[in-house]
Amino acid sequence: MYLLDRDPLWSTLKPYELKFDPPPGFPKSNAVPRKNDGIVVKDIRGREADFSIEKNGFAIMGVDSDITVQDFVRCDGDELAKRYFKPLADTLKAFLRADRIQIIDFKVRKSHPDFPISTGENYEFSQPATLLHIDTSPATTTELVSRFNPESPELLTRRYQYVNVWKPLTGPVRSWPLAVCDSSTVNAAKDLQARDIVFPDGALETFQVHPSSAYKFYYLSQQQTDETMVMPQSDSAGLTGVPHTAFPNPWAAGETGGRESIESRALVYYKD
């Protein structure tokens, strides 16, 4: 996994990453993560019920969907909403006992045969992420709630979350599965470093993660297409988001076929 070294520099300078080509001589990022080897990732298969969002920051949720990578190529938004996103929102609402689910974004990933080696070409789909990270910060989540609900400012007075739902599009997943870090082992004030991801038309704040011997990592072996990993990334109640990343599964070394997955990002609202 790639993590951001602790450095006094970050007390006065904020890390950034540009999602566009800057002028000559201007670096696309000022924070280069370092590869960390020897990290232990424990399997939760057979004891999924032992882990919960309240205790660990993540949980396994069943879904009923046969959506594929090619569906995201040939289907329009209305069909995708009907076949996947609306049922997902309904399932997530019941699972979290929430009042409202608002899916705002998604990303389909399909690993190139040469992954993790980059060919330098533009891929049709995003590649698995190898940087340990959290998708959003509390400040960005608050901004998103306002942006997507300009006529409902009262939502900011209720508890709300930014939740990532990670689902395989082919299974079982063996190559580059998803690892999650138990949020109860993360000291948000010391272990997380806010960074800006800058686009031509704006920016969003996410977190990179510093190394720590306290972390506990888990994954679900042989994860199937009807199993999702639910990971709150921000919570107005103050709970720490869940760092996550893909990792090279030693049990799948030399296998071909890669990994196909979708992560859906949702704003979740509660009555109380």
Provide the fold topology.
Blueprint: E1 2-3, E2 16-18, E3 34-35, E4 41-43, H1 53-56, E5 59-62, H2 71-74, H3 77-96, E6 100-110, E7 133-134, H4 138-148, E8 160-168, E9 178-181, H5 188-191, E10 192-199, E11 202-209, E12 217-219, E13 227-235, E14 244-246, E15 260-269
Parallel strand pairs: 2-10, 4-12
Antiparallel strand pairs: 1-3, 5-13, 6-15, 7-11, 8-13, 8-15, 9-12, 9-14, 10-11
Account of the protein in words:
16% of the residues lie in helices and 30% in strands. With 272 residues, it is an alpha+beta fold. The protein has one domain. The protein has a five-stranded antiparallel sheet with strand order 5-13-8-15-6, with helices on both faces. The chain has a four-stranded mixed sheet with strand order 2-10-11-7. The protein has a four-stranded mixed sheet with strand order 4-12-9-14, with no helix packed on it. One of its GO terms (molecular function) is oxidoreductase activity. This is Methyltransferase. InterPro entries: AsaB-like.
Jot down its keywords.
single chain; alpha+beta; 5-stranded antiparallel sheet; 5 helices; 30% strand; globular
How would you summarize what this structure contains?
With 272 residues, the chain is of the alpha+beta class. It is built from five helices and 15 strands. The termini are far apart.
